[in-house]
């Protein structure tokens, strides 16, 4: 229970990040945050029973440096594709990068030519283009727009119903 995820909101109620219950309780105890949504149950400590938070709000505003560039990394590709295989649509943490036009055929290492693919789809496609492999892309890969918005993986917002009203509807 102490390791359950907790959504951390900025003082402005904007989602900021995710921490664990343990950390959230420390922040509340130190008056650095308040609980805005109660999760399930209580944690018994020598100091008394604490309700388990699932959403907390910081008591002062945290200013984040504006993100100007999104680096092309595995993780950023997976995030852009919402941890979903772009061929079969399966949401999984076991993803690989697939070059739509294969590298050995001079496919570029760019946002527009790289997608997330599950291992079976990547094996099936092998060194072919989607057309040759008869595998249709779910979405055209694009360079993500720069955004300060914090992205929550869908598997979190699905299991933590209390979070949904604080998350931008786009995610
Ligand atoms: Zn797949």
Structure description:
With 171 residues, the chain is of the alpha+beta class. It contains five helices and six strands. A four-stranded mixed β-sheet has the order 2-1-4-3, covered by helices on one side. It has a two-stranded antiparallel sheet with strand order 5-6. The longest helix is centred in the N-terminal third of the chain and has 9 residues, at 21-29. The radius of gyration is 20 Å and the shape is elongated.
Strand-helix topology:
Blueprint lengths: L4 E5 L5 E6 H9 L3 E13 L2 E11 L15 H7 L14 E5 L14 E5 H7 L4 H4 L20 H6 L12
Parallel strand pairs: 1-4
Antiparallel strand pairs: 1-2, 3-4, 5-6
The protein binds zinc ion.
Number of helices: 5
CA distance, first residue to last residue: 26 Å
Task: Give the bound compounds.
Answer: zinc ion
Order of strands, main sheet, comes to 2-1-4-3
Poorly predicted runs are none
How much helical structure, as a percent, in the residues? 10-25%
Short structural summary:
The protein has 171 residues and is an alpha+beta fold. The protein folds into two domains: 1-61, no CATH class; 74-133, DNA Binding (I), subunit A (Orthogonal Bundle). The chain is built from five helices and six strands, in the order ββαββαββααα.
């Amino acid at each position: 229970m102490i390791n359950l995820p907790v959504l951390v909101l900025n003082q402005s109620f904007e989602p900021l990040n995710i921490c664990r219950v343990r950390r959230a309780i420390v922040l509340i105890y130190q008056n650095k945050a308040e609980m805005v949504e109660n999760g399930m149950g209580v944690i018994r400590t020598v100091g008394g029973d604490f309700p388990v938070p699932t959403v907390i709000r910081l008591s002062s505003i945290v200013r984040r440096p504006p993100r100007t560039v999104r680096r092309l990394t595995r993780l950023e590709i997976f995030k852009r594709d919402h941890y979903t295989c772009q061929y079969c649509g399966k949401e999984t943490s076991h993803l690989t990068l697939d070059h739509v036009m294969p590298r050995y055929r001079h496919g570029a290492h760019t946002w527009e030519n790289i997608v997330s693919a599950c291992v079976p789809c990547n094996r099936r496609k092998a060194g072919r283009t989607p057309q040759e492999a008869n595998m249709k892309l779910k979405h055209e890969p694009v360079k993500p727009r720069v955004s300060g918005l914090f992205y929550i993986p869908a598997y979190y917002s699905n299991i933590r119903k209390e979070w949904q009203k604080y998350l931008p509807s786009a995610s």
